[in-house]
Amino acid sequence: MIRLLSIFFVVSLLFITPAQSEEKIIEMLNKREDGARMVYSEDITYINAGDTIKWLPTDKGHNVEFIAGPEGYELPKRSKFNKEVSLTFDVPGVYLYQCTPHKAMGMIALIVVGDDVSNLAQVATTKVFGGSKKKLQSLAAGVSLGK
Ligand SMILES: [Cu+2]
User: Fold this and answer.
1) Distance, CA 37 to ligand 1 centroid (Å)?
2) Where in the chain are the domains?
3) In a designed cystine with 41, which of 5, 27, 28, 63 is the match (CB 3.0 to 4.6 A)?
Protein backbone atom coordinates (compact mmCIF):
# COMPACT_ATOMS: atom_id res chain seq x y z
CA MET A 1 0.00 0.00 0.00
CA ILE A 2 2.77 2.42 0.95
CA ARG A 3 4.54 1.48 -2.20
CA LEU A 4 1.45 2.16 -4.27
CA LEU A 5 1.02 5.51 -2.56
CA SER A 6 4.60 6.52 -3.22
CA ILE A 7 4.25 5.61 -6.88
CA PHE A 8 1.12 7.70 -7.00
CA PHE A 9 3.00 10.55 -5.34
CA VAL A 10 5.84 10.43 -7.85
CA VAL A 11 3.48 10.25 -10.79
CA SER A 12 1.44 13.19 -9.53
CA LEU A 13 4.64 15.24 -9.11
CA LEU A 14 5.38 14.66 -12.76
CA PHE A 15 2.06 16.23 -13.66
CA ILE A 16 2.34 19.09 -11.21
CA THR A 17 5.77 20.21 -12.41
CA PRO A 18 5.97 19.97 -16.19
CA ALA A 19 9.21 21.10 -17.81
CA GLN A 20 8.58 24.72 -18.56
CA SER A 21 10.64 26.72 -20.97
CA GLU A 22 11.61 30.10 -19.71
CA GLU A 23 12.38 33.47 -21.19
CA LYS A 24 15.42 35.37 -20.02
CA ILE A 25 16.01 39.06 -20.59
CA ILE A 26 19.41 40.50 -21.47
CA GLU A 27 19.90 44.22 -21.91
CA MET A 28 22.24 45.96 -24.34
CA LEU A 29 23.93 48.68 -22.33
CA ASN A 30 26.28 51.64 -22.63
CA LYS A 31 27.09 51.28 -18.96
CA ARG A 32 26.35 48.48 -16.55
CA GLU A 33 25.82 48.69 -12.79
CA ASP A 34 29.36 47.44 -12.19
CA GLY A 35 30.72 50.33 -14.25
CA ALA A 36 31.61 48.29 -17.35
CA ARG A 37 30.94 50.15 -20.58
CA MET A 38 29.51 48.82 -23.83
CA VAL A 39 28.31 45.52 -22.43
CA TYR A 40 25.40 43.17 -22.25
CA SER A 41 23.75 42.99 -18.86
CA GLU A 42 25.11 39.45 -18.45
CA ASP A 43 28.51 38.16 -19.55
CA ILE A 44 27.59 34.50 -19.21
CA THR A 45 24.00 33.32 -19.32
CA TYR A 46 22.95 29.81 -18.30
CA ILE A 47 19.71 28.44 -19.69
CA ASN A 48 18.02 25.11 -20.31
CA ALA A 49 17.47 23.71 -23.78
CA GLY A 50 14.25 25.12 -25.15
CA ASP A 51 14.56 28.42 -23.29
CA THR A 52 14.37 31.76 -25.04
CA ILE A 53 16.57 34.81 -24.57
CA LYS A 54 15.20 38.23 -25.35
CA TRP A 55 17.67 41.07 -25.83
CA LEU A 56 16.39 44.54 -25.13
CA PRO A 57 17.88 47.66 -26.77
CA THR A 58 17.93 49.49 -23.46
CA ASP A 59 20.66 51.80 -24.79
CA LYS A 60 20.95 52.69 -28.45
CA GLY A 61 23.55 51.63 -31.00
CA HIS A 62 23.90 47.93 -30.14
CA ASN A 63 22.92 44.61 -31.64
CA VAL A 64 23.44 40.86 -31.32
CA GLU A 65 25.67 38.97 -33.75
CA PHE A 66 26.37 35.27 -33.17
CA ILE A 67 29.88 34.14 -34.04
CA ALA A 68 30.08 30.63 -32.53
CA GLY A 69 27.84 27.82 -31.37
CA PRO A 70 27.69 24.03 -31.08
CA GLU A 71 28.44 21.93 -34.12
CA GLY A 72 25.67 22.10 -36.70
CA TYR A 73 24.19 25.27 -35.26
CA GLU A 74 23.36 27.68 -38.03
CA LEU A 75 24.34 31.14 -36.83
CA PRO A 76 21.38 33.50 -37.02
CA LYS A 77 21.62 36.73 -38.96
CA ARG A 78 22.94 39.62 -36.94
CA SER A 79 20.14 41.63 -35.44
CA LYS A 80 19.27 45.20 -36.38
CA PHE A 81 20.44 48.09 -34.26
CA ASN A 82 18.09 49.37 -31.58
CA LYS A 83 15.75 46.44 -32.07
CA GLU A 84 14.60 43.81 -29.61
CA VAL A 85 15.59 40.29 -30.62
CA SER A 86 14.41 36.91 -29.36
CA LEU A 87 16.07 33.57 -29.92
CA THR A 88 15.20 30.10 -28.66
CA PHE A 89 18.02 27.64 -27.97
CA ASP A 90 17.18 24.00 -28.50
CA VAL A 91 20.70 22.64 -28.96
CA PRO A 92 22.84 22.24 -25.81
CA GLY A 93 26.29 23.79 -25.90
CA VAL A 94 28.19 27.06 -25.61
CA TYR A 95 27.34 30.04 -27.80
CA LEU A 96 29.28 33.26 -28.35
CA TYR A 97 27.90 36.54 -29.59
CA GLN A 98 29.12 40.08 -30.01
CA CYS A 99 27.84 43.55 -30.72
CA THR A 100 28.89 44.42 -34.24
CA PRO A 101 29.99 48.06 -33.65
CA HIS A 102 31.60 47.31 -30.27
CA LYS A 103 33.15 43.96 -31.04
CA ALA A 104 36.64 45.35 -30.40
CA MET A 105 35.55 46.94 -27.11
CA GLY A 106 34.77 43.74 -25.31
CA MET A 107 31.05 43.72 -26.04
CA ILE A 108 30.81 39.96 -26.26
CA ALA A 109 29.01 37.36 -24.16
CA LEU A 110 28.51 33.64 -23.75
CA ILE A 111 25.42 31.49 -23.42
CA VAL A 112 25.61 28.00 -21.93
CA VAL A 113 22.64 25.83 -22.85
CA GLY A 114 21.80 22.70 -20.90
CA ASP A 115 25.02 22.67 -18.84
CA ASP A 116 26.84 21.38 -21.93
CA VAL A 117 30.36 22.80 -22.21
CA SER A 118 31.74 20.18 -24.61
CA ASN A 119 32.46 22.87 -27.22
CA LEU A 120 33.81 25.48 -24.81
CA ALA A 121 37.46 25.06 -25.82
CA GLN A 122 36.50 25.44 -29.45
CA VAL A 123 34.40 28.53 -28.79
CA ALA A 124 37.34 30.03 -26.89
CA THR A 125 39.40 29.97 -30.08
CA THR A 126 36.86 32.01 -32.06
CA LYS A 127 38.41 35.02 -33.75
CA VAL A 128 37.45 38.13 -31.83
CA PHE A 129 38.85 41.64 -31.97
CA GLY A 130 40.86 44.05 -29.81
CA GLY A 131 39.73 44.14 -26.22
CA SER A 132 37.44 41.19 -26.79
CA LYS A 133 40.37 38.77 -27.02
CA LYS A 134 41.20 39.09 -23.35
CA LYS A 135 37.57 39.17 -22.39
CA LEU A 136 36.81 35.95 -24.27
CA GLN A 137 39.57 34.17 -22.37
CA SER A 138 38.28 35.41 -19.04
CA LEU A 139 34.70 34.50 -19.93
CA ALA A 140 35.72 31.02 -21.03
CA ALA A 141 37.63 30.60 -17.77
CA GLY A 142 34.60 31.80 -15.85
CA VAL A 143 32.18 29.25 -17.21
CA SER A 144 31.04 26.96 -14.43
CA LEU A 145 28.52 24.21 -14.22
CA GLY A 146 25.75 23.83 -11.76
CA LYS A 147 25.04 27.54 -12.12
CU1 LIG B 1 27.33 47.58 -28.67
Assistant:
1) 9
2) 19-142
3) 27
